[in-house]
Amino acid sequence: MQGESRESLAQATSALDTLIGNVSHGGMHKADVATLADQLFAVQHVLDGEVSLRRAFTDPSSNPAARAGLARQLFGAQISETAAGVVADLVSAPWAAPRDIVDAVEQLAVQALYSVAASDGSLDNVEDELFRFGRILDREPALLLALTDPAVPVDNRLALVDSLLEGKATVTTLRLVHELIASPRGKTLGVNLDEYVRLAAERRNQLVAQVTVAAPLTDEQSARLAAALESQLGRRVHLNVELDPELVGGMTIHIGDTVFDGSIASRMADARRRIAG
Question: What is the pLDDT averaged over residues 214-234?
Answer without folding.
Answer: 81
